Amino acid sequence: ESCLGGADLKSMEVAALSVKAGQDVMKHVHGYVKMVADWWEQKEGTILDELCTNLRMSDGAAKYLDTETILFLGMKCKDMCEHRSEFLRAQWPLAIFCLRLYTQQDVDIDRMLMFNDVPDFPTEDTEQTPEGRDRVYSAYRKARKASGCPRNPMMFGIGNLAVRTRWDMFISDSADVGSEAEDRLKQAEDRLKQYLKWQVLIS
């Protein structure tokens, strides 16, 4: 039951904040993990299929990511970081590639996937924070939005929000029904399932 955070101390503390007094936190966590594990088993395809469906790359023109590029970049990522720890040295290239995706904003993913009009990663310390990168990347994001041709999402943001939103609804009262609640439920589930195999792998 390691998927989606593994109910470690940090995630348990966050989970406890949203569980009402008298409710069994571990019972809810186990139920939630079982639900997600069932979805994982039911989802067709591999993590490679999932990544290729959700991400875009460039080889001169925008196209869906392919498995050859994933494996090539995975090897590059491993070569760059395996010296940093025994943990990283022991990981498969695909796992390191997926972990790197989790650390990146949408623009950073575009850059890694070889779009050549992406701004460089900031060199100043103050610009390397999430807020700093937002300022540096603002013009690029506006241009992408105006073009009507989306590239890559901010995967960690979408994934984390979906996991947390679906958790909050999982432990909420069953009285919370209605078209608005059903729409939020479906949106959270769709988002969670969209990146499910990637999220389970990195956790």
Shape: globular
Proportion in β-strands = under 5%
Helix content: 55-70%
Helix count equals 11
Largest sheet: 2 strands, antiparallel
Q: Based on helices, strands and strand pairing, what is the structural class?
A: mainly alpha
Could you spell the SSE succession in H and E letters? HHHEEHHHHHHHH
- End-to-end span in angstroms? 10 Å
Which blocks of ≥5 consecutive residues have pLDDT under 50?
1-12
Question: What is the residue-averaged pLDDT?
Answer: 87
Give the strand line-up of the largest sheet: 1-2
Radius of gyration: 19 Å
Total count of strands:
2
Note down, in words, how this protein is organized:
- With 203 residues, the protein is mainly alpha-helical.
- Helix content is 64%, strand content 3%.
- The chain has helices at 9-18, 25-42, 47-54, 67-81, 86-89, 93-102, 106-112, 130-147, 155-170, 179-194, 196-202; strands at residues 56-58, 62-64.
- Strands 1-2 form a two-stranded antiparallel sheet.
- Helix 4 packs across helix 6 (93-102).
- It is globular and about 50 Å long.
- The model is unreliable at 1-12 (pLDDT under 50).
